[in-house]
Amino acid sequence: MKPMATATCFAPVRRWMLFPDRCSRRAVRPGPVVGLRRRGYAIVQVAVATLSLTVPLTAPTRASSDPVAMDEPAAETRPIEIVAGVVYPAGTRLSIPGTAWSFVVPAHWQSSRPNDADMPFLTPEEGKDLGMLFPLTGTTRESVREQMSEPLSLLHGISFVPAGSQIENETSIAQSYQGEDMAGRALAVLGPGAVAVIYFLMGPPHDAALFPSVLEQLGESTHFGVPGAERGPGL
Hints:
Helix content: 10-25%
Shape: globular
Number of strands: 12
Largest sheet: 6 strands, antiparallel
Distance between the termini: 25 Å
Protein backbone atom coordinates (compact mmCIF):
# COMPACT_ATOMS: atom_id res chain seq x y z
CA MET A 1 0.00 0.00 0.00
CA LYS A 2 1.38 3.41 -0.93
CA PRO A 3 0.87 6.52 1.25
CA MET A 4 -2.15 8.48 0.13
CA ALA A 5 -1.43 11.84 -1.49
CA THR A 6 -2.36 15.12 0.18
CA ALA A 7 -5.09 15.61 -2.44
CA THR A 8 -7.39 13.17 -0.67
CA CYS A 9 -10.01 13.64 2.01
CA PHE A 10 -7.55 12.72 4.72
CA ALA A 11 -4.09 13.79 5.85
CA PRO A 12 -1.07 12.31 3.98
CA VAL A 13 -1.10 8.92 5.70
CA ARG A 14 -2.23 5.51 4.49
CA ARG A 15 -5.94 5.89 4.14
CA TRP A 16 -9.10 4.65 2.51
CA MET A 17 -8.90 5.02 -1.25
CA LEU A 18 -11.60 6.63 -3.37
CA PHE A 19 -12.59 6.69 -7.01
CA PRO A 20 -10.81 9.32 -9.13
CA ASP A 21 -12.57 12.68 -9.32
CA ARG A 22 -14.75 13.31 -12.37
CA CYS A 23 -12.23 15.95 -13.46
CA SER A 24 -9.52 13.30 -13.77
CA ARG A 25 -10.87 11.39 -16.82
CA ARG A 26 -8.60 8.47 -15.93
CA ALA A 27 -9.86 4.94 -16.25
CA VAL A 28 -10.13 2.90 -13.08
CA ARG A 29 -7.15 0.58 -12.80
CA PRO A 30 -6.45 -2.24 -10.34
CA GLY A 31 -4.83 -1.08 -7.13
CA PRO A 32 -5.27 2.01 -4.91
CA VAL A 33 -7.02 4.99 -6.46
CA VAL A 34 -6.90 8.40 -4.82
CA GLY A 35 -9.38 11.23 -4.92
CA LEU A 36 -8.64 14.85 -5.73
CA ARG A 37 -8.47 18.02 -3.64
CA ARG A 38 -12.02 19.19 -4.26
CA ARG A 39 -13.56 16.10 -2.66
CA GLY A 40 -11.20 16.30 0.29
CA TYR A 41 -11.99 19.93 1.01
CA ALA A 42 -15.73 19.32 0.84
CA ILE A 43 -15.67 16.30 3.17
CA VAL A 44 -13.58 18.00 5.83
CA GLN A 45 -15.43 21.29 5.56
CA VAL A 46 -18.84 19.66 5.96
CA ALA A 47 -17.64 17.33 8.72
CA VAL A 48 -16.25 20.19 10.79
CA ALA A 49 -19.31 22.34 10.19
CA THR A 50 -21.74 19.59 11.06
CA LEU A 51 -20.05 18.42 14.24
CA SER A 52 -19.67 21.99 15.51
CA LEU A 53 -23.30 22.75 14.60
CA THR A 54 -22.22 26.04 13.01
CA VAL A 55 -23.57 25.17 9.56
CA PRO A 56 -26.38 22.67 8.87
CA LEU A 57 -25.57 19.92 6.39
CA THR A 58 -29.06 19.49 5.03
CA ALA A 59 -30.52 21.70 2.34
CA PRO A 60 -34.03 23.18 2.45
CA THR A 61 -35.37 20.97 -0.36
CA ARG A 62 -36.65 17.52 0.56
CA ALA A 63 -37.22 14.60 -1.76
CA SER A 64 -40.85 14.30 -2.72
CA SER A 65 -41.24 10.71 -1.51
CA ASP A 66 -42.38 10.17 2.06
CA PRO A 67 -40.11 8.32 4.52
CA VAL A 68 -40.64 4.58 4.49
CA ALA A 69 -39.68 1.81 6.89
CA MET A 70 -36.59 -0.25 6.16
CA ASP A 71 -38.61 -3.45 5.72
CA GLU A 72 -41.13 -2.04 3.26
CA PRO A 73 -40.92 -2.94 -0.45
CA ALA A 74 -40.34 0.71 -1.38
CA ALA A 75 -36.83 0.44 0.03
CA GLU A 76 -35.98 -2.06 -2.73
CA THR A 77 -37.23 -0.01 -5.67
CA ARG A 78 -34.99 1.31 -8.42
CA PRO A 79 -32.16 3.45 -6.95
CA ILE A 80 -32.50 7.21 -7.11
CA GLU A 81 -29.71 9.25 -8.66
CA ILE A 82 -28.63 11.74 -6.00
CA VAL A 83 -29.23 15.41 -6.80
CA ALA A 84 -27.20 18.03 -4.94
CA GLY A 85 -29.24 20.12 -2.52
CA VAL A 86 -31.98 17.53 -1.99
CA VAL A 87 -32.49 15.76 1.35
CA TYR A 88 -33.47 12.09 1.02
CA PRO A 89 -35.41 10.55 3.93
CA ALA A 90 -35.03 7.18 5.60
CA GLY A 91 -35.98 4.23 3.41
CA THR A 92 -34.85 5.83 0.15
CA ARG A 93 -32.58 3.69 -2.01
CA LEU A 94 -29.81 5.88 -3.41
CA SER A 95 -27.25 5.19 -6.11
CA ILE A 96 -23.63 5.59 -5.05
CA PRO A 97 -22.31 8.21 -7.51
CA GLY A 98 -20.08 6.83 -10.24
CA THR A 99 -21.00 3.19 -9.62
CA ALA A 100 -23.69 0.61 -10.29
CA TRP A 101 -24.08 0.24 -6.51
CA SER A 102 -26.71 1.53 -4.11
CA PHE A 103 -27.75 1.66 -0.45
CA VAL A 104 -30.85 2.48 1.59
CA VAL A 105 -30.88 5.46 3.97
CA PRO A 106 -31.19 3.96 7.49
CA ALA A 107 -34.20 4.47 9.73
CA HIS A 108 -34.22 7.86 11.50
CA TRP A 109 -31.44 9.16 9.24
CA GLN A 110 -31.36 11.22 6.05
CA SER A 111 -28.89 11.80 3.23
CA SER A 112 -27.78 14.84 1.26
CA ARG A 113 -25.00 15.76 -1.16
CA PRO A 114 -23.63 19.32 -1.01
CA ASN A 115 -22.94 21.07 -4.30
CA ASP A 116 -19.16 20.79 -3.86
CA ALA A 117 -19.01 17.10 -2.90
CA ASP A 118 -19.07 13.98 -5.07
CA MET A 119 -20.39 11.63 -2.39
CA PRO A 120 -23.48 12.01 -0.19
CA PHE A 121 -23.39 12.43 3.58
CA LEU A 122 -25.63 10.87 6.19
CA THR A 123 -27.03 12.73 9.21
CA PRO A 124 -29.54 11.63 11.85
CA GLU A 125 -32.94 13.29 11.95
CA GLU A 126 -31.92 14.40 15.44
CA GLY A 127 -28.37 14.61 16.80
CA LYS A 128 -24.85 15.68 15.91
CA ASP A 129 -23.56 12.57 14.13
CA LEU A 130 -22.16 12.43 10.60
CA GLY A 131 -21.84 9.56 8.16
CA MET A 132 -19.63 9.27 5.08
CA LEU A 133 -19.11 6.56 2.48
CA PHE A 134 -16.11 5.59 0.41
CA PRO A 135 -16.42 3.29 -2.64
CA LEU A 136 -13.26 1.29 -3.34
CA THR A 137 -12.04 -0.56 -6.42
CA GLY A 138 -8.98 -2.70 -7.03
CA THR A 139 -8.95 -3.73 -3.38
CA THR A 140 -8.76 -6.93 -1.35
CA ARG A 141 -9.96 -8.05 2.06
CA GLU A 142 -6.39 -7.85 3.31
CA SER A 143 -5.84 -4.28 2.09
CA VAL A 144 -9.15 -3.12 3.55
CA ARG A 145 -8.29 -4.77 6.86
CA GLU A 146 -4.88 -3.07 6.86
CA GLN A 147 -6.28 0.38 6.14
CA MET A 148 -8.95 0.09 8.81
CA SER A 149 -6.35 -0.93 11.41
CA GLU A 150 -4.44 2.34 11.05
CA PRO A 151 -5.20 5.78 12.57
CA LEU A 152 -7.65 7.88 10.60
CA SER A 153 -6.43 11.47 10.25
CA LEU A 154 -8.71 14.18 8.92
CA LEU A 155 -7.69 17.76 8.36
CA HIS A 156 -8.50 20.55 10.83
CA GLY A 157 -7.28 18.42 13.74
CA ILE A 158 -9.96 15.72 13.45
CA SER A 159 -8.38 12.32 14.02
CA PHE A 160 -9.31 8.85 15.22
CA VAL A 161 -7.38 5.80 16.39
CA PRO A 162 -8.63 2.21 16.19
CA ALA A 163 -10.23 0.94 19.39
CA GLY A 164 -10.64 -2.77 20.02
CA SER A 165 -10.42 -5.63 17.55
CA GLN A 166 -11.89 -5.82 14.10
CA ILE A 167 -15.01 -7.91 13.68
CA GLU A 168 -15.19 -9.85 10.43
CA ASN A 169 -17.60 -12.11 8.66
CA GLU A 170 -17.82 -13.38 5.10
CA THR A 171 -18.93 -10.05 3.63
CA SER A 172 -17.84 -7.29 6.03
CA ILE A 173 -15.21 -5.87 8.38
CA ALA A 174 -16.09 -3.57 11.29
CA GLN A 175 -13.79 -1.38 13.37
CA SER A 176 -14.43 1.11 16.20
CA TYR A 177 -12.43 4.32 16.62
CA GLN A 178 -11.78 6.89 19.32
CA GLY A 179 -11.09 10.58 18.79
CA GLU A 180 -10.84 13.66 20.96
CA ASP A 181 -14.38 14.16 22.28
CA MET A 182 -15.70 11.96 19.46
CA ALA A 183 -16.24 8.32 18.65
CA GLY A 184 -16.29 6.61 15.28
CA ARG A 185 -17.12 3.27 13.74
CA ALA A 186 -16.52 1.95 10.25
CA LEU A 187 -18.05 -0.92 8.32
CA ALA A 188 -16.46 -2.17 5.13
CA VAL A 189 -18.92 -4.06 2.93
CA LEU A 190 -17.05 -6.37 0.58
CA GLY A 191 -18.53 -6.81 -2.87
CA PRO A 192 -17.94 -9.31 -5.69
CA GLY A 193 -14.50 -9.08 -7.17
CA ALA A 194 -12.08 -6.43 -5.90
CA VAL A 195 -14.64 -3.85 -4.74
CA ALA A 196 -15.94 -2.60 -1.40
CA VAL A 197 -17.73 0.30 0.28
CA ILE A 198 -16.60 1.69 3.63
CA TYR A 199 -19.28 3.45 5.68
CA PHE A 200 -17.93 5.63 8.50
CA LEU A 201 -19.99 7.20 11.28
CA MET A 202 -18.67 9.69 13.82
CA GLY A 203 -20.19 11.76 16.59
CA PRO A 204 -20.37 12.31 20.36
CA PRO A 205 -19.23 9.27 22.41
CA HIS A 206 -22.69 8.76 23.91
CA ASP A 207 -24.03 8.03 20.40
CA ALA A 208 -21.47 5.31 19.66
CA ALA A 209 -23.75 2.54 20.92
CA LEU A 210 -26.17 3.35 18.10
CA PHE A 211 -23.60 3.16 15.31
CA PRO A 212 -23.50 -0.66 14.88
CA SER A 213 -27.23 -0.90 14.18
CA VAL A 214 -27.09 1.98 11.68
CA LEU A 215 -24.10 0.43 9.92
CA GLU A 216 -25.84 -2.95 9.89
CA GLN A 217 -28.75 -1.39 8.03
CA LEU A 218 -26.36 0.18 5.53
CA GLY A 219 -24.46 -3.06 5.04
CA GLU A 220 -27.53 -5.22 4.57
CA SER A 221 -29.04 -2.77 2.09
CA THR A 222 -25.92 -2.36 -0.06
CA HIS A 223 -26.28 -3.69 -3.61
CA PHE A 224 -23.23 -3.88 -5.86
CA GLY A 225 -25.06 -4.30 -9.15
CA VAL A 226 -23.50 -6.29 -11.95
CA PRO A 227 -19.87 -7.32 -11.35
CA GLY A 228 -17.58 -5.52 -13.79
CA ALA A 229 -19.97 -2.59 -14.24
CA GLU A 230 -18.12 -0.36 -11.78
CA ARG A 231 -16.82 2.94 -13.04
CA GLY A 232 -15.33 6.12 -11.65
CA PRO A 233 -17.29 9.38 -11.41
CA GLY A 234 -17.69 11.02 -14.79
CA LEU A 235 -16.34 8.02 -16.71
